[in-house]
Amino acid sequence: MPMPMESWNTEEVHCSQIDWEDRSFRLTYSRPLTALATSIKGIGLQNLPVLQKKEGNRFRIVSGFRRLQVLSGNNMGSLRCRTAPIEADPRNLFFFNFQENLDRGFNTIEQSWVLKGLSELMERGELIRYILPLLGLPPKEEILRRSLGLTEISPLYWPFVLEGRLFPEVIQELVQAHRRQADLILALFIQFRWSFQKQREFLKDLLELAQRSGEPPGMILTSESFVSILLRITGGTPQQRGEEVRKFFRNRLFPVLSKTESRLAGQVAEMGLDSRTRLMPPPFFEGGQYALEIKFSDPEELKASLGKVGRAVASGKLDHLP
Q1: What pTM was estimated for this model as a whole?
Q2: Which residue has better confidence, 170 or 232?
Q3: Residue 286 region by backbone torsions, left for phi larger than 0, else alpha for psi between -120 and 50, else beta
């Protein structure tokens, strides 16, 4: 795509003329300035920032946002920049910024911004065939949808994507199936520090419960029973609080199984077995055999555990297992 750069000027622009809130071409997110500031201090500014003129003798940033941050932080009143005219095609300017930053690379959030911006400039097939590989991503429709999904959630959650606590694959599912509840669900994921698998299981359980009960997902998540769970689990570790929420869905989805598991847990507690001994039921309590697992580090530990099991058998506490 041709860049009409011959019409660009080089001029001094005062910091007060720059509209820092105009993010029309912003492709930089969560990048520290320390290394760049050191470089500029050591060898000077190698590439001039590019601005576009706006009405009222103002300018928006086309490229060089971080460079301008460093320079403005050095209390420089005026900055030497290249300036594009007010009538310059914004699509061309966006593509220029993308090309200028391509060698630098883009993090996950920046990739989503690139694809969102270029989606208004290129055909979807071109994005998949040409742009995704330039970003180091597989040229697949699914990857494009996943990346674009990140632009549909609140910016509050972008840092957690970069930290690896929220996952693009899960966010894509969330946006598709539970868009209205996205903020609440993402907040729960962060609070409970759930893994990728647990986040996906939550969305699956929520959708299945909505289909079975006929209640919309939003009604389930704002129901008195669910809210009471959240209010009750303010203490404990994030993992413990998350497990209580998982139990809520399990009880709603499998009420008979949950009651049976609870009954077995009560019987096992009465047996007085030690922590090294586990009594495991057949899958879903549907026939099959129970299993007994004993962990020990010496014969005395094994003898003690077997003694407790033997006393439970002799007293009849295993006679009526569910």
Answers
A1: 0.77
A2: 170
A3: beta
Whether 271 contacts 317, CB under 8 Å = yes
Distance of CA 137 to the CA centre of its chain: 18
| 8 A C-beta contact, residue 63 and residue 70 | no
DSSP string, 20-83: TT--TT----S--SHHHHHHHHHH--SS--EEEEETTTEEEEEE-HHHHHHHHHTT-SEEEEEE
Domain membership of residue 115 (yes or no) is yes
Query: Encoding tokens for residue 304?
Result: 């003690």
Q: How far does the chain reach from its first CA to its final CA, in angstroms?
A: 71
- Residue 117 sits in which domain range? 105-152
Of 29-38, 263-272, 306-315, the poorest mean pLDDT is in: 263-272
- Residue 79, classified by CB atoms within 10 Å of its CB into exposed (0-12), middle (13-18) or buried (19+), is buried
CB–CB of 206/217 below 8 Å?
yes
On whether both 191 and 276 belong to a single domain, the answer is: no
Q: Give dist(CA 121, CA 123) in Å, integer.
A: 7
Mean pLDDT across 195-205: 94
Instruction: Give a yes or no: residue 266 inside a domain.
Output: no
CATH number of the domain at 81, please.
3.90.1530.10
Nearest to 192 by CA among 215, 162, 165, 221: 165
User: Quick one: DSSP state of residue 157?
Assistant: G
Query: Is there a domain that residue 8 lies in?
Result: yes
Length of the chain: 322
> Looking at 50-54, 76-80, 141-145, 207-211, which range is the least confident one?
76-80
Q: What is the pLDDT of residues 222-264, one digit of tens each?
A: 999 888 888 887 777 888 888 888 888 888 888 776 677 778 8
Whether residue 100 is found in the same domain as residue 54: yes
Domain count, the chain: 4
